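Exercise 3.2. Students should predict the tertiary structure of the chain below and write it as structure tokens, then compare their answer with the key that follows.

Predict this chain's 3D structure.
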Amino acid sequence: MANPQHLALLKKGAVSWIEWRNLNPNIEPDLSEANFAQANLRGAQLGRSNLFKIDLFNAKLIAANFAESNLSLANLAGAQLLETNLNQANLTGANLRNADFMGADLSGANLIGADLSAANLQQTDLGDANLIGAVMFRVNAIGANLNNANLSQANLNQAELIEAHFYAANLSKANLGEAHFTAAYFFRANLSFALLSGADLRWANLAKADLRGANLTGANLRGANLAGANLDEAHLNGTIMPDGSIVST
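Answer key:
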């Protein structure tokens, strides 16, 4: 449960909170399980805080700082997190459905098993993030940075990932069916045994990508760069290849 003193200080307003944090830099605020649903915490300084199971449903958290905080099992559904700092935050199992993370920093964050369904991740930095088993159904991550991220077994079905960057990312066994990856960057990415059926990979850079055993049935690879890619045992029935030809098996 939240520390009553910490809870009271935050509810007093930003000025009191910042003054207290400046005077007590070594204290880790404890706001676990607190209810801030629909609260306006724009610009709040909540870095290195215990926010376990906090309720921030539909909260305004624009430009707030949650760096290195524990937000595991938190409810951030529908929250506004534009340009928010969540660097290395722990969001394990968090509810992030329909949240707006446009331009946010989630680099190095732990999002194992988090639910990001229909979230806005446009221009979001998810470099080095841990997204194992995350639910990212229909997310909008156009132009997002997912370099070196771990997305193994994640569900990105029908996601919008146009021009997203996946350099050396791990997408092994991920569900990428019907996702849009036009002009995405997958150089050296691990897509082994990934489900890519019906995916739009036109003009994507898949050079040196590992596509062993991937299901590319009905995928569109027109104009894609497959130089050095490993397609051993990949399923290519009905796949449109870079030259426009259609594989028939």
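Discussion points: The mean pLDDT is 97. The CA atoms of residues 70 and 197 lie 36 Å apart.
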